[in-house]
Amino acid sequence: MALGIPWQHQHPIAASIIKAYKKNYGSPLNKKIEKYQEIAGQGIKAVINEDEILAGNNTLMKNNNINIDYPDINTTGSIVHIAKNKIYAGYIVIADSLKQDAHQTIKKLKKSGINKIIMLSGDSDKITRNISEKLNIDEYFAELLPDEKVEIVEQIIEEKENKEKVLFMGDGINDAPVLTRADIGVAMGALGSDAAIEAADIVLMQDKPSDLAKAINLADFTRKIVWQNIALALGVKGIVLILGAFGLAAMWEAVFADVGVALLAIFNSLRVSGFNNSTL
Fold first, then answer.
1. Element (H, E) at 33
2. Rounded to whole angstroms, what are the CA distances from 235 to 37, 51, 247, 259?
3. Given this model, what pLDDT does residue 3 score?
4. pTM of the full structure
5. Chain-centre distance of CA 48, in angstroms?
């Protein structure tokens, strides 16, 4: 986890904490923050009103020799530990909720021909396993740092067959390296970070994972129309060419083979605008 300056950062976990803080305590802008430091994959360290504050995961606490004294937490949420002046102060639990179209997305992706769906997450194994089971995901990897995500994607790319493509979808700044490395990178435009959007090949402008399945189906439909137009053009022109060689094709047949086929291809292409993904 990498949290930024509270009232400026776009990270979902940071935004959730600040939203809850403002609801209960008002604006945090009166706090004096000094010596702010972001520690990739762990959390943040800062001096607030002359007190050293640590906020992050288990690794951050261990690296600063802070004894995490809390009972076993029976939750599937993300835990943000807090320490003040090297003394453990408590923790914040943040639970993600599945998007409404998550189940529908997985079903449509498998129906569209996706061979295997793998989830790469920086969350704990318990959280990742729980979501994986709910969505019927084929395989998952948990507690990953950005470089570890890249290593796993590279391994998947090496093991795939030549005709297969590896598609990765993400929205965080930590996903940018993986989006670049994958054969096809897809970013969420609504909530995605600028780095993820810049690194992606495809940007879904709405915060709806199901749009990925729609984009794949639309791409397949468009490809079919392209091949239909190619076959139509070459077929008609070839027939007219042969007839012309034997003196059986008049001027009107030649005009149809040129202008007529072009108009038919245009009308056929207009079918894309009426594409209906609901039946797929």
1. strand 33-39
2. 66, 78, 18, 14
3. 41
4. 0.66
5. 34
